[in-house]
Specification:
- The C terminus is likely disordered.
- The chain is built from 28 helices and 15 strands.
Length: 692
């Protein structure tokens, strides 16, 4: 990185330090926020209050509940991440997002708890789950390695001796914990603990009779973790992003389901849990009265996030600008230059603001500085500056495309198999996507009155389409699912039926398979085997919906609603490359040229409309410069390679030069060195991938 630049040169060559794609918080086990950007003084009193209550749980093992409230943009999700990072050595932390169906809420909590326990804390070498096992006093006289050597029975006996009563399915549960130590059986054991519906062979492998297939079983298994945690560390259940939970018939969010769970944890004496429930203040005030008073009374303490001071806002600016200042010589006159305190005082006359508003103001001012090369003092103006104009639609779509790319990459690294999502979750995220694509008469459930209602939906697409998504692996479950589909067809509930399922069904001797063959022998009834890429598309959109519902989604200078998010998705076509949606024919079909090519291929060879890495990189570069206005050519090259690691340096340069040669980008001064060159968007350019 070059040093010795002026502040203007450094800012024009860098990505805006207030890049809004970095604003969106989320699951603290999936995000990697830069801790150097944290201002410790912000919400420190709330963090200390949580610390105090956690110590109380550690002291007496009694479960407690804290309600964390704050305005949208106050930093609730960010604070949960800080709490986890600072207190993870004194508790095991789980992140629990919105559930797909309230009939599955205990199973959702169990699944999210196990998923979080599989995560590795910072500065640790193994997962929380293994740390938890290792810390059990009952097992400490042997190393875990020694336990693995054919001592399953002794392991179970040792645990049961220390926990003689109260463990649900004690022998099976302890045996599954033992199997976690066996690399061959660990994936199956983990899936059983998560509540996956396992096939018969897998159940036998870990010596259990059946999967966790009910709310009661999930509740009792969760209680097992609490009982054993009595000998180790408490478990902190963090509920976040709760603005996208199922709605009740009166369109209120079903918060009652969560607070009923909370009361059950207290009433059933399920010890050693600390519940942190994060809610937007207005959501809590609006719906508090709809929750049973006895359940509200189970909240031990409410912690409210207050707006931050201007000193804290200034500290946020300082940390964001520090990397840019490091390039400047001589150093800028102030730690927040070219921004000034007077802008904070002007925009926030009450001397208080929210962290997100502070960052968004910084973003807008840096944009202005990049464009004009100067930033006036607001107090020196004779007329108060008008609010910044709304971003042009083209720029807004470019911002959204960049955000989508960032979130999609994170989902790709996080979701490595389809069954990481439960069947109700899969159909729920598909429902959200179909809603965004404005399919007609979308409704759920489709298999009403059955165990599989949460696995199904229905819509209209020139005909009534029923859809079922099930990844339950046991063939007995598959049999009952096929029976439910068979009845739905007999009752004329749909003209076309899609079964979406990647799980194996190749057991022709089973009754479920026989019904399957009868149903899907007809052209109107289709079995689609989804791929992992399709789930990545659906899950990426789901994460954005969660953020938009909670007012946490930032796109450029705006915080779009769910409806505005849906509009952006349709305009940008980010879902058009999803293979599943192409098969369902709810996005543009395969390119005509590709269809002609397919004519010579085997019928089984599927070809979907895809975007090549070269095309994707080209569009990304154009979107990035479009949102930054000016950018150093070297920085553009480095950013492109960081976002597309498989792209060689030579190919990345070709991508950029193709945009320059095609008069999409312009180099301001081609006579200076590459490191000092600045690119900008051609003024009359219509940013469109189709025209490149």
């Amino acid at each position: 990185m070059s040093r010795g630049r002026s502040l203007k040169q450094a800012i024009q060559r860098s990505v805006n330090p207030f890049d809004p794609t970095t604003f969106k918080p989320g699951n603290f086990w999936q995000e990697s926020p830069d801790s150097t950007l944290e201002v410790e003084a912000i919400h420190q009193s709330v963090l200390q209050a949580v610390d105090t209550v956690l110590e109380q749980v550690r002291a007496d093992s009694k479960t407690r509940t804290l309600l964390l409230t704050g305005d949208s943009g106050s930093g609730k999700s960010h604070l949960l991440g800080r709490i986890k990072r600072q207190l993870n050595d004194r508790a095991f932390f789980t992140y629990i997002g919105p559930w797909a169906d309230s009939q599955f809420i205990w199973r959702h909590i169990l699944r999210n708890t196990v998923d979080s326990l599989l995560q590795t804390p910072e500065d640790a070498d193994e997962s929380q789950l293994l740390l938890w096992l290792r810390s059990l006093p009952a097992l400490q006289h042997h190393s875990l390695v020694k336990w693995v050597r054919g001592k399953r029975a002794a392991f179970i006996k040792e645990l049961q001796t220390h926990f003689p009563i109260g463990l649900y399915k004690g022998k099976e549960f302890c045996g599954v914990l033992y199997d976690l130590l066996n690399p061959d059986l660990c994936p199956i054991a983990t899936d059983w603990l998560r509540g996956d519906d396992l096939e018969e062979g897998d159940l036998k492998a870990i010596k259990v009779k059946q999967s966790i297939d009910s709310e009661d079983a999930a509740q009792k298994l969760l209680a097992n973790f609490g009982r054993i945690a009595n000998a180790t560390l408490p478990i902190v259940l963090c509920f976040d992003n709760l603005d996208n939970i199922p709605l009740l018939p009166d369109n209120r969010p079903d918060l009652q389901a969560l607070f009923h769970v909370n009361s059950t944890l207290h009433n059933e004496k399920l010890n050693n849990f600390l519940l942190l429930i994060s809610l937007i203040t207005s959501t809590w005030k609006q719906h508090k009265d709809a929750i049973q008073p006895a359940d509200v009374a189970r909240i031990d303490q409410t912690l409210s996030l207050r707006p931050i001071t201007l000193n804290q806002a200034e500290a946020l600016w300082k940390l964001r600008l520090a990397p840019v200042h490091a390039q400047v010589s001589p150093p800028p006159e102030t730690a927040i230059a070219p921004l000034t305190r007077s802008w904070l005082e002007y925009k926030f006359p009450g001397r208080r603001t929210l962290p997100r508003n502070t960052l968004m103001l910084g973003q807008q001012l840096i944009e202005q500085y990049q464009r004009d090369g100067a930033l006036p003092l607001p107090s020196a103006q004779t007329v108060p500056p008008s609010p910044p104009p709304p971003p042009p639609a083209q720029n807004q779509e470019a911002n959204f495309a960049l955000l989508w790319h960032r979130e999609f990459q994170k989902v790709q690294s996080r979701i490595t198999r389809i069954t990481q999502k439960s069947s109700p979750e899969l159909i729920r995220i598909l429902w959200e996507v179909l809603s965004a694509l404005a399919v007609a008469d979308l409704e759920a459930p489709f298999l009403t009155g059955t165990k599989y209602s949460a696995y199904s939906l229905r819509y209209r697409q020139s005909a009534r389409v029923g859809m079922v998504w099930s990844e339950d692996r046991h063939m007995t479950s598959f049999y009952y699912l096929m029976r439910a589909c068979e009845r739905a067809i007999e009752q004329g509930r749909c003209d076309r039926l899609y079964l979406i399922r990647a799980a194996d069904i190749s057991q022709p001797q089973t009754q479920g398979h026989q019904i399957y063959r009868q149903i899907f022998a007809y052209a109107n009834y289709l079995h689609i085997e989804p791929d992992l890429a399709s789930v990545h598309y659906l899950e990426t959109y789901h994460g954005l919906v969660n953020a938009a519902a909670g007012g946490e989604l930032v796109v450029g200078r705006t915080t779009p609603t769910v409806q505005e998010l849906q509009s952006l998705v349709r305009k940008t076509g980010v879902l058009n490359y999803c293979p599943l949606l192409q098969e369902l024919e709810v996005v543009p079909e395969l390119d005509e040229a590709l269809q002609e090519d397919d004519a010579s291929e085997e019928p089984s060879a599927k070809r979907y409309r895809t975007q090549s890495p070269h095309e994707a990189a080209k569009q990304y570069a154009l979107n990035l410069v479009s949102t930054q206005q000016f950018m150093g050519l070297q920085m553009l090259l480095e950013t492109l390679q960081a976002q597309f690691p498989d792209l060689s340096n030579g190919t990345a340069q070709q991508v950029i030069h193709a945009l320059i040669d095609g008069e999409h980008l312009r180099v301001l001064d081609a006579t200076v060195s590459l490191e000092e060159q600045i690119v900008c968007l051609m003024p009359t350019e219509n940013v469109s991938a189709d025209k490149m």
